[in-house]
Amino acid sequence: MTASLLRTAADLRARARTGRRAVVMTMGALHEGHATLIRTARRIAGPEGEVVVTVFVNPLQFGAGEDLDRYPRTLDADVELAGKSGADAVFAPSVDEVYPGGEPQVRISAGPMGERLEGAARPGHFDGMLTVVAKLLHLTRPDVALYGQKDAQQLALIRRMVRDLNFGVEIVGVPTVREEDGLALSSRNRYLSSAERRTALALSQALFAGRDRHAAQEALRARAREVPATRARAEALSAIGESRAAADAHAVATTAGGPAAVRAAARLVLDEAARLDPPLRLDYLALVDPSDFTEIGDDFTGEAVLAVAARVGSTRLIDNLPLTFGTFGDAS
After folding, report:
1. In angstroms, what CA-CA distances link 311 with 179, 197, 201, 314, 318?
2. What is the pLDDT of residues 199-234, one digit of tens each?
């Protein structure tokens, strides 16, 4: 499948439109993670619908000293990958096309959620991101727009904007795509040297450690609920050798667990990575409520996000995993 390359809003408006339009917004340098988004969009749009991929490196979401100038721009390869993955068109406007009067005077404010975590590390980033997403939603007029869950805070803010400002579009989050060693796919991975990439694996390893600690805790708590409460029943089980298992389950299930244990398990991996050569320099490790990205308490129940951001060399990377607390079941 070959994707048409469109450079202007007029070109996009001129396209005959049939069925549902699904849009995947990117800053280019497409990789398998983007391909997964496009393939998912193709399934949602169906054979009668249309998939549009936007490629635009948005200057508003880059702060001072960030990598706007060196951000990879590979449009020819992007168009090819988009077409092979199921896109009908690639909309790659210039900065002047998106911001015809220069930087916009009126912008979307991300509010309090946009000042936490990534927003604290990159002031103004989410205001710039939401402003361009709003403009691209207006320009492309999709029925559904897809975004990767790797950028969990971005996805949460887009959902909030769409709800608060009554955008008539469905927002779909697509799970993070990882390389075989667990590293989340990112356009910035290409900046890493071999040694830096080995250190960068600590981000996903820390998340997995937190997830596994949580899963073990939840499984032990579920097992503890099945342990007999009376001496007579305990003695009966002892005869068939289950008393030690019951005691172990009770002991572990009643020790410090929950969010504190998840954070501690992840932090241990990150602390070790800080001593590597080259070292990992942690920006934040957070376990948050996805509705507002505030830290959860030890008595929290429901969906949560374990998120991490760090620098390796000159490259800044982020990653996250979803977790569920209080179900005595699976961790994610």
Report:
1. 19, 11, 12, 7, 9
2. 999 999 999 999 999 999 888 777 766 655 566 656
Query: Does an H or E element contain 219, and which?
Result: helix 194-224
Beta carbons of 127 and 106 less than 8 angstroms apart: no
Judge contact between 54 and 23, C-beta under 8 A.
yes
Determine the residue type at 236: A
Helix (H) or strand (E) holding 218: helix 194-224
Under DSSP, the state recorded for 149 is T
- How would you classify the pairing of strands 4-6 and 280-289? unpaired
The predicted pLDDT at position 331 comes to: 43
DSSP per-residue letters across 220-288 = HHHHHTTS--SHHHHHHHHTTT-HHHHHHHHHHHTSS-HHHHHHHHHHHHHHHHTTSSSPEEEEEEEEE
pLDDT digits (tens, 9 = 90+) for 143-201: 999 999 999 999 999 999 999 999 999 999 999 999 999 999 998 899 999 999 999 99
Q: Cβ distance 118 to 318 under 8 Å?
A: yes
How far apart CA 327 and CA 331 sit, in angstroms, is: 9
Vertex 204 angle, CA 192 and 311, to 5°: 40
Positions annotated as catalytic residues are 34
pLDDT tens across 305-331, in order?
Answer: 999 999 999 999 999 999 999 865 444
Question: Nearest to residue 110, comparing CAs of 161, 74, 145, 67?
Answer: 161
CA–CA dist 27, 78 (Å, integer): 10
What gap in Å lies between CA 293 and CA 153, rounded to an integer?
7
Residue 312 · residue 145 · CB < 8 Å: no
